[in-house]
């Protein structure tokens, strides 16, 4: 089997048989397109011709190529996709050896999440104040992101029915895993105002859809739209730090832990499968506590 048909077969496998999320499949497709292009440049068109030396050269190429070299984390992600592909080839009997199994990604440095201060969050949210359709929607979206720590993909995938009574919402995370997260009073008020004063008008402009957050033509807001909404609000608020949808998720976790929340509770709220993933946020709050101690304690210096 040639390389590209093998990749196509693998993508069908993860889509149909494993039922992975569309975003995950799209990421695999992008990563394997990079791999296929490199193989083609090396004159490799048969996956059985790939050996461990070739894969090591591919990993090195990713970090040193002239056009946009990848970071260590991006290389690790691409290699993960390639490993899954070669494992599939062995399982299907296309190749006899999993040549990618022993290929190591570059070591990843500890990268602390980028959170912004509570004051910057308040300024960001205030930048969406107003009674216009967009302002009501943007306020509801940003308040909800900060109130729940939802991933942007989870927020834009929300339907109206996912806003439950008793001040909670239902989020669908990676792998379709469902969790119910409480929503604070500010976010509840913003969502209620949007549902009453903006969404009916927006909905009337397009085809019927259960989506919670709608664009000006009545369609579901996309991840890209959400990113642009947040960036525009940050510019209006005069925030110089880079702000993205994930910034609000990081800030949610960091501010909860700084306020005394248990790390396992924050783990559940974020939808992390491992508490170790959540514990990186404790490093952020420890740095804050250390700075406060150093500046306040007479014998700290």
Q: Order of strands side by side in the largest beta sheet?
A: 1-2-3
Rg over C-alpha atoms, rounded to the nearest angstrom: 23 Å
State the helicity in percent bands.
55-70%
Overall form: globular
Secondary structure category: mainly alpha
Strand content range: under 5%
The first-to-last residue Cα distance is: 67 Å
Number of helices: 14
Secondary structure tally: strands? 3
Please sum up the structure shown.
58% of the residues lie in helices and 4% in strands. It has 301 residues and is mainly alpha-helical. Strands 1-2-3 form a 3-stranded antiparallel β-sheet, with no helix packed on it.
List keywords for this structure.
single chain; 301 residues; mainly alpha; three-stranded antiparallel β-sheet
General description of the model:
With 301 residues, the chain is mainly alpha-helical. The protein is built from 14 helices and three strands. It has a three-stranded antiparallel β-sheet, with no helix packed on it. A hairpin with a 3-residue loop joins β1 (163-164) and β2. The N and C termini lie far apart (67 Å).
Strands, helices and their partners?
Elements: H1 3-17, H2 22-41, H3 52-64, H4 72-91, H5 118-126, H6 133-148, H7 152-156, E1 163-164, E2 168-172, E3 178-182, H8 185-197, H9 199-204, H10 223-237, H11 245-258, H12 263-270, H13 275-278, H14 280-296
Antiparallel strand pairs: 1-2, 2-3
Helix pairs in contact: 1-2, 2-4, 5-6, 5-10, 6-8, 6-11, 11-14
């Amino acid at each position: 089997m040639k390389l590209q048909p093998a990749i196509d077969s693998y993508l069908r496998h993860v889509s149909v048989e494993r039922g992975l999320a569309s975003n995950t499949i799209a990421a695999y497709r992008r990563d394997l397109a990079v791999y296929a292009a490199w193989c083609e440049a090396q004159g490799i068109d048969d996956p059985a011709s790939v050996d461990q030396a070739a894969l090591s050269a591919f990993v090195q190429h990713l970090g040193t190529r002239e056009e946009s070299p990848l970071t260590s984390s991006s290389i690790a992600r691409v290699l993960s996709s390639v490993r899954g592909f070669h494992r599939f080839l062995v399982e299907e009997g296309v190749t006899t050896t999993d040549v990618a199994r022993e290929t190591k990604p570059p070591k990843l440095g500890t990268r602390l999440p980028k959170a912004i201060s509570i004051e910057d969050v308040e300024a960001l949210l205030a930048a969406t104040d107003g009674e216009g359709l967009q302002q009501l929607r943007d306020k509801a979206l940003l308040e909800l992101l900060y109130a729940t720590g939802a991933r942007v993909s989870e927020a834009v995938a929300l339907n109206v029915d996912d806003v439950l009574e008793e001040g909670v919402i239902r989020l669908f995370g990676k792998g379709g895993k469902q969790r119910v997260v409480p929503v604070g009073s500010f976010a509840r008020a913003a969502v209620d105002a949007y549902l009453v004063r903006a969404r009916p008008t927006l909905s009337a402009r397009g085809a019927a859809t259960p989506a919670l957050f709608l664009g000006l033509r009545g369609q579901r807001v996309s991840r890209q739209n959400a990113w642009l909404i947040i960036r525009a609000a940050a510019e209006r608020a005069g925030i110089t730090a880079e702000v993205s949808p994930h910034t609000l998720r990081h800030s949610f976790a960091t501010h909860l832990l700084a306020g005394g929340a248990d790390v396992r509770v924050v783990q559940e709220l974020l939808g992390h499968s491992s508490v170790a993933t959540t514990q990186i946020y404790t490093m952020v709050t420890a740095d804050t506590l250390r700075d406060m101690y150093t500046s306040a304690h007479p014998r700290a210096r």
